[in-house]
Design a protein that fits this description.
heterodimer, A: 151 residues, alpha+beta, Ubiquitin-like (UB roll), DNA polymerase, domain 1, 2 domains, five-stranded mixed β-sheet, 6 helices, globular, B: 726 residues, Aldehyde Oxidoreductase, domain 4, 3 domains, seven-stranded mixed β-sheet, 19 helices
């Protein structure tokens, strides 16, 4: 049994310790907002926060997450209120198919914690998620709109 | 809004452990058909609840392109309903079939969602409005002519009395559906044509949206699959005993004659066991095929005597023989995988009494047909419930429904157990239905004044239709008309230019790699071939690329319109910022006229930065300008990823690439600023949106690259030339 703290709740999961955190979250804990896209840390659809840092959970063994604070897309809202990134995503109508957007939102949320007013270069360096629908223009606009709001 | 579809109701019920899978059919009952929430149907396209919630039925699939929002706008416009109370319901193909295909075509491809259903869905909205007004007039005992409807309220003019739609829907549902309804003049549209927000965003930012991969059902097991890596090869044997004892593994099953699957409690266990499973394949003769042999096969077609003619006038060969100057070039385009973010998957439960499938498909009826065939059950014992699609791009259309068939074949071996089949990314990459491989030889002739007097465009390569719809090719005496998309003799993909002596023909060469419809389909390569060659001809003629095209577009005012608009926006004819270079392109595709204009810089001779990309489109009518802008920008990402990075190469009969590390896709750092020009000019015919503009990005960038470097790149992807996108 491995003990996982996800979105403030503790879950005991009975899996091989080498199981990727992604699959423990999706299949053992049952939170499916975190997506499988590649399994090799290329696309970022599986991004979650482990102790606040963005992690590609498809390539992160569940055993390494034990005892750490894990946040998934389902845990971003506080008291039913969406976080500023989620709100901006709605304001800017960012998602198309939406499949990659959980990971995108997790990556952007982590970036804004480090740099509340990221430059384009900051965004380019930090956000390396793949979106096949091609929402990047709206993603960038939405990020900058958050900086302006907090200005 | 809530996606009120039974597939989602099922998943929610399963997640909360409450309801069983068998739910009541929404239709039937005492004289009135009802939506899933019990609200009465007012005609087949809308059902209205007492609280005025409007359920609009959509059978085209949402995969990110915004079609459910656009179609709902069209219905709501004529219905005169309160937009904030609109939600979407997906009727199933089984229900549609029971009602003599009441909702028409389910297929969602070819940019057809809106352009081919706008008429009947608007009529559906108008019919419902008429019925609601009639029901209110009946209740008041006043003439219909004294009543009007707006914002989900019927008003009796003389008395100023009002009734909400929700108050008269039950009565309206009992009226006959009027056949002849008058549609609004587009100039009176209030909802259509506006930049309205999508209906499906809320659940896409909080992890709640249910994609096929997310389905949960009581007792469900998960399957991972491997098909013979060589297309056409067979499964010889596998050693199930090696993995059957692994914790969580339930069964190892053969799937058809070419695949094997492991069924387990979780997908991760299924996949891990499958990776450990010893499998022997009978690879067959196709194992000898490589990219090099395919290239040779296509090359021979460039000068072959036999070819199917797609467009011809005058005598191109004579004109070329007599030309003052001849220009010749050979281009090539590779196999490419769709790489939808959500890998192929579907969930199937089979019993001898019923076979049902839940998951992502671009064509509910196509998936239905696949379930029907693979299950062997009659049509009234089969149904398909759609989820949200994590991308489609053509891969999840009716051809070939391979993943659906596989899942049914697995589920049949475990009756009563819902089986979720999910492909790994590697399986998805190596068992695609690939953008067809093509080569093209172009020969153009100029007279002494630099006028284009003759053009021969010979394409050589693979036919999609020959593979997936051979009856269409047979009816055309062997020709695949789709091969000529963007350069065809007439219709939705007609050639843009008037050339006095023209021959465009296709030497069909069909390697064993299965081809499929890939966003834009054959306009991707045809636009590169013709639009880059136009620049080559203009240069040989000593003319400006825009001016050279203008003369050839004299009979195509809409084509010229979009090209001029894109060129003006990029600043064509004016000096570019230092170090920046420009290129243009134009095509007609899916009945839309589209043009592109790029502004790029190149450093070190090979590092390309696309700064700006203008996309101009004239689709006739624009239903939602905000979503069109997003489709244009998105199509550029898909098209530029293909241009710079993507190629599926063949070695020993199989695809060499396996994941995004060797099949790359654009990131935000590489995203140019996209400027959309939406310039609908009306007319009888509506054009598509999801695909057309994809094809103008690549030639515009390639033409700009030539101006920047003096190098004409004629093969895709550009990574093979050492060119990077930065």
């Amino acid at each position: 049994m491995i003990s996982l703290s996800i979105n403030g709740k503790t879950h005991q999961v009975d899996v091989d310790p080498n199981t990727p955190l992604l699959w423990a979250i999706r299949e053992q804990v049952g939170l499916t907002g975190t997506k499988y896209g590649c399994g090799v840390a290329q696309c970022g659809a599986c991004t979650v926060h482990v102790d606040g840092a963005p992690v590609r959970s498809c390539s992160f063994p569940v055993s390494a997450a034990a005892g750490k604070k894990i946040t998934t897309i389902e845990g971003l809202a506080e008291g039913g209120k969406l976080n500023q990134v989620q709100q901006a995503w709605i304001r800017h109508d960012v998602p198309q198919c939406g499949y990659c957007q959980s990971g995108m939102i997790m990556a952007v949320t982590a970036l804004l914690k480090e740099k509340p007013k990221p430059t384009d270069a900051d965004i380019n360096a930090a956000i390396t998620n793949i979106c096949r629908c091609g929402t990047f223009q709206q993603v960038r606009e939405a990020i900058h709109s958050i900086s302006k709001q907090s200005a | 809004m809530k996606m009120n579809r039974r597939s989602f109701i099922i998943s929610t019920a399963a997640a909360t452990g409450g309801l069983a899978l068998g739910f009541r059919l929404p239709f039937g009952g005492p004289g009135v058909a009802r939506a899933a929430d019990g609200s009465p149907e007012v005609g087949i396209w809308v059902a209205i609840a007492p609280n005025d919630t409007v359920n609009i039925r959509v059978v085209r699939s949402e995969m990110g392109q915004g079609t459910i929002t656009g179609l709902a706008q069209l219905v709501a416009e004529e219905l005169e309903c309160n937009w904030s109370k609109v939600r979407i319901e997906y009727p199933t193909p089984g229900e549609s079939l029971k009602r003599k295909r009441a909702w028409g075509e389910f297929s969602t491809g070819g940019s057809r969602g809106i352009r081919e259903s706008h008429q009947y869905v608007r009529q559906g909205g108008a019919a419902a409005r008429t019925m609601l007004i009639q029901a209110a007039a009946n209740q008041w005992g006043v003439p219909v002519a004294e009543c009007t409807a707006a914002n989900s309220v019927v008003t009796h003019g003389p008395s100023k009395r009002t009734l909400r739609y929700g108050q008269v829907a039950e009565a309206a549902a009992r009226l006959e559906v009027p056949k002849d309804v008058k549609l609004k003049d587009p100039k009176d549209w209030k909802i259509v044509g506006k930049p309205i927000k999508r209906l499906d965003t809320a659940d896409k930012v909080n992890g709640k949206m249910t994609y096929g991969i997310d389905l949960k059902m009581p007792g469900m097991l998960n399957a991972a699959i491997k098909e013979c890596p060589v297309f056409g090869g067979k499964l010889k044997s596998f050693d199930a005993a090696k993995v059957e004892g692994m914790k969580g593994v339930k069964k190892v099953v053969q799937v058809g004659d070419n695949a094997v699957a492991v069924v387990a409690e979780t997908w991760w266990v299924a996949k891990s066991a499958l990776d450990a499973l010893p499998i022997v394949w009978d690879e067959g003769d196709n194992a000898k095929v490589s990219s090099a042999t395919i290239a040779e096969q296509l090359k021979a077609g460039l000068d072959a005597d036999q070819a199917f003619v797609g467009n011809q006038n005058g005598n191109a060969k004579d004109a070329l023989a007599g030309a003052a100057k001849k220009v010749e070039a050979v281009y090539a385009y590779p196999y490419q995988n769709h790489a939808c973010m959500e890998p192929m998957n579907i969930t199937v439960r089979y019993t001898p009494e019923k076979c049902e499938a839940w998951g992502p498909t671009q064509n509910g009826e196509g998936a239905f047909a696949a379930v029907l065939a693979a299950s062997g059950l009659p049509a009234d014992k089969v149904d398909v419930y759609k989820t949200m699609l994590g991308g489609g791009f053509g891969r999840r259309g009716a051809y070939p429904n391979d993943y659906v068939t596989q899942a049914v074949l697995i589920a049949k071996q475990m009756p009563g157990t819902p089986i979720k089949l999910l492909w790994s990314r590697e399986e998805d990459m190596q068992h695609g239905r690939y953008h067809p491989v093509m080569q093209c030889k172009l020969v153009g002739g100029l007279d002494s004044s630099g006028n284009l007097t003759g053009l021969h465009m010979r394409i050589s390569g693979q036919s999609i239709l020959a593979a997936v719809r051979p009856e269409v090719v047979q009816a055309q005496k062997g020709r695949d008309p789709l091969s000529f998309q963007g350069v065809f003799e007439s219709g939705e993909h007609a050639f843009s230019y008037t050339v006095p002596n023209l021959l465009i023909d296709h030497a069909m060469r069909n390697p064993h790699v299965p081809p499929g419809f890939w966003r834009g389909v054959n306009i991707n390569q045809n636009a590169i071939f013709i639009e880059c060659f136009m620049d080559e001809l203009a240069e040989a003629a000593g003319q400006d690329a825009l001016e050279f095209r203008r003369k050839l577009l004299a009979n195509n005012p809409r084509g010229w319109g979009v090209l001029k608009a894109a060129a003006d926006k990029i600043g064509w004819g004016k000096p570019a910022p230092k170090g920046r270079y420009r290129g243009i392109s134009v095509l007609k595709a899916f009945n839309s006229y589209v043009a592109g204009a790029a502004e790029i810089s190149v450093t070190g001779g090979n590092k390309v930065k696309v700064h700006r990309l203008v996309g101009a489109t004239d689709p006739g009518y624009a239903v939602n300008t905000a979503q069109i802008e997003r489709q244009v920008a998105g199509s550029f990402v898909y098209g530029l990823s293909a241009l710079f990075f993507q190629e599926c190469t063949v070695k020993d009969g199989r695809i060499e690439q396996s994941n995004f590390h060797d099949y790359n896709s654009m990131r935000i750092a590489q995203m140019p600023r996209v400027e959309s020009i939406i310039m609908p000019t009306g007319g009888e015919v509506w054009g598509g949106i999801g695909e057309p503009t994809i094809c103008v990005a690549a030639p515009a960038v390639l033409n700009a690259f030539y101006r920047a470097t003096g190098k004409r790149l004629r093969t895709v992807p550009l990574k093979n030339h050492g060119v990077e996108m930065v």
